[in-house]
User: Fold this.
Amino acid sequence: MLCTVTAARADDWDMPGGGGEKPPKGSDPKESDTKGTEATPPDKEAPDKEPQKAPATKEPTDKAEPKGTDAERTDPQTSPDAKAEAGATTESADEAVEEEASREVRVVQQKPFLKAGRVELFVAGGGAFNDPLTTHYGVTAAARVHLSPQVALSLTGFKFYGRTTDNASAIQTDFGLFPERSLIQAAGFAEVNWVPLVGKFVLLGSWVVNWDGYFILGGGVLRTNHDEDLKLGGNVGVGLRSYITRWLTFNVELRDIIFLEKFNAGSQVMQHVYGMAGIGLWIPPTYEYKYQR
Assistant:
């Protein structure tokens, strides 16, 4: 009979004596060490341990971090974005105000033409046609000193070229009568001009022309062909002045020249309605406003 004897390790049994009970499963130190190093599956982790989370990483972004303190970033009135927006709004408002001021319509506008303190040299030509027996053509020159926009003093001279009409010739031929004639040769007056009216009108659809209306009152002397003596006379009239440039105007005037003529039959008041048109040259030619717009 064959017997097999297996030697048991001393550490598998209680020592000494070897007759002790077999240690319980899992009490072997090596087995415990091996089991302790084994990884526990994720789904079988101990319930009292919280799973570890990976540290959060910031994703890259193109936006820069807002500047300023936390209080400035949270306060909508002091945050950098609000300040920048307020600055842009203020700048835009300033530009809008400047643009509006550049094109605004002023209630009180500057005068388009300054007259006070300037001299107007006036030259004109015209004629008188109210006398049925005589006709006068003439030239006029005047120097006007404008004391204010409404008042001016002037010296005006006239040179007339008179002739008899066909009516005077017919009377002589048909009736054998030779009526006395009075033809003005020259005249000079000192005058006062007063401007009560100003205005403007549009010419050719786009050209704005400023104008003023004035009255004329003056007195002086004149000479006629009736005799060589100087006669006292005067004139009253109205005028219309249109401003072309700062130094050039166009004037139209209508005057009534009045004087006393001595005929053989007696003295008679004579009136010659004289109309003329001319230009005015202003000195100095330029000017500056005291208060710029």
About this structure: Residues 80-103 form the longest helix (24 residues). Confidence is low (pLDDT under 50) at residues 1-22, 29-47. The first strand starts at residue 119 and ends at 128. The helical segments are 29-37, 70-74, 80-103, 166-175.
